[in-house]
Amino acid sequence: MNLTVIGTGYVGLVSGTCFSEMGNHVTCVDVDEVKINGLKNGVVPIFEPGLEAMVLSNVKSGNLHFTTSLESSLSNSNIVFIAVGTPMGEDGSADLQYVLSVAKQIGELMDKPLVIVDKSTVPVGTADKVRTAIQKELDSREKNIEFHVVSNPEFLKEGAAIDDFMKPDRVVIGADNEYALGVMRKLYAPFFRTNERFIEMDIRSAEMTKYAANAMLATKISFMNEIANICELVGADVNNVRLGIGSDKRIGYSFIYPGSGYGGSCFPKDVKALARIADENNYSAELISSVEKVNDNQKLVIANKIIARFGDDLNGFTFGLWGLAFKPGTDDMRQAPAIYVVKELVKRGAKIVAYDPKAMTEAKEFYLKDTPEVSYVASKYEVLNNADGLILLTEWKEFRSPDFEEIKSKLKHPVIFDGRNQYNAFDLENNGIEYYQIGKKRG
Ligand code: UDX
User: Fold this and answer.
1) What sequence ranges are listed for the domain UDP-glucose/GDP-mannose dehydrogenase C-terminal (predicted)?
2) Is 85 near ligand 1, meaning CB less than 6 Å away?
3) Which fold, 299-436?
4) Is 255 in the pocket of ligand 1 (CB under 6 A)?
């Protein structure tokens, strides 16, 4: 099949590349010339395991192309994916300007029948808006060309995106006619051995499925973080409670890890947007709003523990920091707890020496750009030199079993603030390390 994928962000680039891997002829389009030129030469702008190799091999085989010209790409395609960003607008709703501007361009340029697929996360009702925007342009060109708009939300996880796409738990397709459904079935058939994972539904339900899935997962995390905070107050250990409840199949072990709150490009934005969607329909989404509130507070739990230990005024204190990315396996720092913790400590006069295996460039160039109090080192043990304590905020594997003797000998105070509950409190305390974690009081 011949595909155009508009937008070479996370979703667009991964989808386009994986479709080309399955033998489709794919052209990825983006307005960013620098990015497109880089991609043509195999320079992948994001870190995602396996992506670069897959881009390179499909560019080489001629299945994957990159261009800034939507016009040339459209004339060779029968399916078009819209995978441009839907950033959070000022009022918390999803900003549709990029999606609708792309829809307008499709209407201006298309010269043959197309199936147009919304892959970006968009509020319920967006497919109708996309259809209207395209039709308006066709009408003004006095063209009568058939087209179908389909919703196909993306569920990939950063750091495991290729695997998630190539071996999906499910593919959700919202369509309003059999022809469009047939095209999508054929496109996705190579990704499944049986078709029970291909879930067909109406367009609005497909759009809602994405928000409901992300809000459900975010709810599990915020629920567990709230339980963690209560555990700490009543002298329980959330690590035990997690095992205790996860063993119930109805609850399950996944997404109940307490920590420093969820970050990333999806959960914070989608939870907020869902609350807005409810609002706009005169429904006050109490649970969804609380999920967000709990998460905002959770990002600062570790900073508050540091303040409780070292005092309000942190002038003269330096902390070593392990982990900047919002989760391991990515260089992405969007809404990462590290941003909030670092800013809170710096506001009180502290200095931070940070190390992250992948996200230091992101931190330096964007998220902590105006924070000269943060410096960066090339390895995990270097953050410890002259530091008053160690903070862990991303559970990268290389932080999992460090040399605690080295930590103890280098830190001024042998104290660890662990925002991801990576270590055994009993062992560390016995080894003379003052260990603070989420959801379990010391001692
Ligand atoms: C998520 C969804 O998983 C994916 O289906 C959707 O399409 C986009 O959003 P992603 O943002 O890449 O994917 O990350 P994910 O691995 O789901 O983690 C999200 C956040 O939740 C991270 O900050 C992580 O640290 C946090 N988290 C996750 C917890 O705090 N506890 C958990 O038990 C699980």
Assistant:
1) 320-425
2) no
3) Rossmann fold (3.40.50)
4) yes
Question: For 89-124, how does the pLDDT look when each residue is reduced to its tens digit (9 = 90+)?
Answer: 888 888 999 999 999 999 999 999 999 999 999 999
| Beta bridge partners of residue 376, listed in sequence order | 354
211-297 placed in CATH 3.40.50.720: no
The per-residue pLDDT for range 138-179, each reduced to its tens digit, is: 999 999 999 999 999 999 998 899 999 999 999 999 999 999
Does ligand 1 come within 6 angstroms of the Cβ of 257?
A: yes
**ipTM of the modeled complex:** 0.90
Residue 194 class from Cβ within 10 Å (0-12 exposed, 13-18 middle, 19+ buried)?
exposed
With a 6 Å cutoff on the Cβ, whether 107 touches ligand 1 is: no
**Yes or no: domain 2-201 corresponds to CATH 3.40.50.720:** yes
pLDDT in tens, 240-251: 999 999 999 999
Instruction: Encode burial over 144-182: b for 16+ CB neighbours within 10 A, e otherwise.
Output: eeebbbbbbbbbbebbebbebbeebeebbbbbeeeebbe
Of 217, 226, 394, the one to substitute when testing ligand 1's pocket (max ligand atoms within 8 A of C-beta) is: 217
Please tell me the residue having the least CA distance from ligand 1 atom 17: 157
